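Table S7 (text form). Paired inputs.
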Amino acid sequence: MSPDEYCQQKAAQSGSSFYYSFLFLPKPRRLAITALYAFCREVDDAVDETSDATVAQNKLIWWRSEVNAMLAGKPTHPVMRALEPHMATYQLQGKHLLAIIDGMEMDLTQTRYLDFIGLQKYCWHVASVVGILSASIFGVTNPKTLEFAEKLGLAFQLTNIIRDVGDDARKGRIYLPINELQQFGVTAADILNARHTEQFTALMQFQYERAQQCYAQAFALLPAEDRRAQRTSLIMAAIYRTVLEEVKEDGFKVLHHRISLTPIRKLWLAWITYVRG
């Protein structure tokens, strides 16, 4: 199996919304973004699929060394071998790959965030940086496009946080800011014990409105001249915003189950967004 085939398999197995947005890219860009996505999956799995925090930490240390090896022209892992040829082509920066690993490491050391400022820092590492790298692969002629990508990454991560409140709670994690829980009269115990209350619904409505505001702010930043190149980003946004709306329509019952879209619906959203440009 070639490095590119390994990354393709990693991406396809995930069933992620991102995978469906890649299908409409020209082959060179599709190979690059698939390699980047596979890298994100690998470092995320190093934390989420490892029960021993020390083992997970050691895996992240290894991935840091592998990024540095790739930057020195000596990658060994198939993902890094697949990603290496695209680094110069799309002006990708190694510091951003290392920043993603830093974000994954935060999940090993921090399970609560005092306020939104603290949460934003986490989101920057695990999502906004990915947005910047992705936008660079899709095509950028105006620096404003990177600001669009950074803000869109935040919107994606806020959507993930809203959708995954229950799943994260079962892992002992609460990403909703503590001061906002207090503001709406929701306790950590409410979330950890899956108590869906009126206060919790109000809290989630607040989170929903902030996420929607982030999407609006991101779209306002996208320059017209890069809109066509960034259609893949817009496809991802269409899928994620649909998930966000589904969560709202379901009454924010995220403590008990996780909303997801069927593959055919994701493909339809990808196609219709691509056609509309």
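Next pair, protein 2 of 2.
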Amino acid sequence: MSDFSIYFQLGWQHILDLNGYDHILFVMVLCCSYVLKDWKKILWLVTAFTLGHSLTLALAAFKILNVNTAWIEFLIPITILITAIYNLPKRRKQRNPALLYTMTLAFGLIHGLGFSNYLQSLLGKEANIFLPLLSFNIGLEFGQLIIVFFVILLSELMLKIFSVTNRDWSFFISSAVIGISFIMALERIPV
């Protein structure tokens, strides 16, 4: 197995690991208000997020950036909470796409810092970290797209088969994620 394949696999497995469900929650709440016909908007959002976390992963891997892990672990559920609150239907009319993309990019920076310790431990003393970093990020993106696929598929089923409105579906998912992320944040308050 090539180095590319190894790090690619580690990337998508890391995203889809149910023990680290915070990333799954973020991607879920990010795209739960969209349907299949909105695939371009979803792709832009996921790409903005990937750019953010790729940048901080690279900065951390090259040892340019080093942050307190406890604060990052606390901020990750805060980003999920903010995204879920922003996603609530009463705010949908006020949604600003530029703000959402900027917010998603910024939150990607924070989530990338959460991945950085994991990636640094994988890289160890690697002489050339460019290819492992690239393949790990591509694996992360692939994993995110799998999450997006299942969320959109579930959304389409709820809207078309069970006649749930997009507003109600988005409210349901966002409300559940608000509760989960709030508890996660409380559990991770740095002391």
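DSSP finds eight helices and no strands in the chain.
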